[in-house]
Predict the structure.
Amino acid sequence: MTKKNNLDELAIFGGTRMFETPKPTSNLVRPDLGTFLGYSKVMFDSHRYTDDGALVKQLQQRLADFHQTQYCVAFCSGFWALALAISALARPGKTEIVMPSFTYRRMADIAAWSKLKPHFCDVEESTLANSAKTVRPCLNENTALILGVHPIVNFCDINGLVGLAQEKNIPLLFDSVESVYESSAGRKIGCFGAAEIFSLGASKLVNGFEGGYLTTNDAQLAERLSMLRNSGRDGQRCEATPGGLNARLNEIHAAMALAGLDDLEHQVARNRERYQTYQRLLAPLKGIRLLEFDESHHPGYKNIVIEILDDWPLSRDDTVRILNAEMILARAYYTPPLHRKRMDYPYITAELPVTDRLAQRYILPPCGHLVSNEDIAIIVELMKFISVNAAAIQIRLQSPGSL
Amino acid sequence: MAITDLALFGAPPAFDQPLPIGQRYFPSRERYEAAFRGIFERQYYTEYGPLNRQLEQKLQQFLGVKHAICVTNETIGLMMVGDAMGLSGKVILPGFASIASAQSLRWAGLEPVFCDADPNTHHIDIDRIAALIDKGVSAIIGVHLWGGACDVQALANLAKVRGVQLYFEAAHAFGCMVDDVRIGNFGRAEVFSFHESNILNASEGGCICTNDDELAARLRTMRSSAGAGKPAEVAKTVNGRMSEAQAAIALMSLEDFSANRRNNETLYRLYATRLGNIPGLKLAQPAGVSLSNYQCVVCQVDEREYGLSCDRLIGLLKAENVETERCFYPGLHRCLPYAQQQPQRLERLPNTDSLRASCILLPVGALVSAQNIARICDILDYANRIAPSIRG
């Protein structure tokens, strides 16, 4: 089905789904199989399938070159890259990590595994991210680390956070999972703060099945993290460095990420086309605002974010529910924010009015490799149908037994 | 053979390429390509995909266990178990073991207490555990070694009587049986490693096995993978996912298990025949199992009888391109940070100290042939005969 003619045809009211297969918000980019198998040959020749093999080394070098940093350390996931980097960078004896609440749903868990208390800060309405202004009130004598988190579209207050971290002499780590491709003032994301963390998960710009990496210009930090992710061993000495863990990236995942890097420019062009399709088709739709990429930053256009404005006739959550029923796996953006979730470990929060307000307003519509421009046209057409028929939809949603 | 035939004294090495210690079984290029063609067609890369589901079902069937929960690697699996079991305070584990269990405890906010080893089986010395249990101890980790198993029954009895939890680190024991029950069924949980050095290879990977429904539900929720059942209440989550790539390799490795186990056994028996005739060398036997995977060849060196120290022997074999490694050197109780945190315990694990000083691992697995082993044993035999000359 490509078009809805009446309310009964909406899947939420029992109609046929718009799509037979799910349309995700995950990138799920597929590199060329032949290229992947070509890289895999290295593994067959060396009989080395993990433990810092040739492919992981090659990937680290490629990524360091890409981000214009001196060092890159690969990990089994962005999650464990963050946990290990946080543990390595935290000021000894200090207990709090300042981070936004409006972010990745497992970020507070990462802090807890790293034995730090999340201290939630608010975000800027203009960037959806934390900034020097929102972080400063959260700093105190217990602060171990500042986590700057880039939002999905554009990036956070890099210069402000770098300046604040320097002023207060507190380490600054960036979660740059959503900003792989971008540059700020001619410098690639990856070279700011003490280090930056990226993901090679399948939903990210570079698909390594699973994986993550850290970029830095700090030789000591790179060396320390290379040891920590290798169960605290450096290949020569058999001492177990405190805080070590097996967080190694395996060679198959490295081969996949390398194949993805080979396709990166083409992928960004495809992502841009999808973004421009949304941009063109959503423009006439009242009540919806597409978050625009700042093209001077060379974005990767991986995800699309739309804001539900006050004059959109349905709630954000009802809109998402209607879309989901059609196999359009749109998601509410970072909802609920972390400070509103139950946590069984210590944390610190205050009133976060901007976060609370913004957490009601944004949607990630489908994007990535499994979404075509035709799919986008169908999705936007459905949004128009929802908008035009909102009053009737609302009544039906509220009537008992209608679903 | 003359002393100048040894690489240590200038001869070319016995082997052109280094012979690795670990298993390194891996599917053929054709099978690999077919498996990845399937993944690329399905475009399902991670998040509990069809291969992960299939692998878990097949592991459950093979091991006869209710739940097999595949994870990124063994250490992360052990961390998840420590956290999901709600442990607190101290956990007793052997000092003669890999670093994985001890590191998992640190991440789970638990304190390790190292117990000495039985000098014959090399496993945790059950007689010494009781004295270590106090009010602060919440669990014991048994570590299965060398294709053998701890005394699972005695450990279970002790844990029950003393009211502590019991789980196992089972990296060396995939496919092994105790009285015809597969490892994976003992304690509250057992955690396998699918690292390339083990008989079941997923490049990296691991699997938590349990017959406890509630614990399994918590572990599946903690692992954070879509569609893995009804969420359970957990204190915190991790990324503990196994990818479809890892699952593909593990599935092929599981298909090959019997053949690879047989190959290991053949190679192990070759070592046994030859090393039995060399004074001062003793091959460790897989203890406590009715079926072993024979994935480890551990040779204990009696320096006085053999004539060379362990270090000297490792150097001699390394020069021949034979990779060897001391087992669990220097012993967990002597690793940082434990040596600093528990200095009073440094000298309380004499058997562990003795084993780590005298045991070495020898190559066995996919890249080692019967001829290779004959050559390694020739070198070991000859080195024994001319030990005084080698010592200089």
User: Anything to note?
Assistant: The longest helix of chain B spans residues 257-275. Chain B has 15 helices and 13 strands. The first strand of chain B starts at residue 67 and ends at 71. The mean pLDDT of chain B is 96.
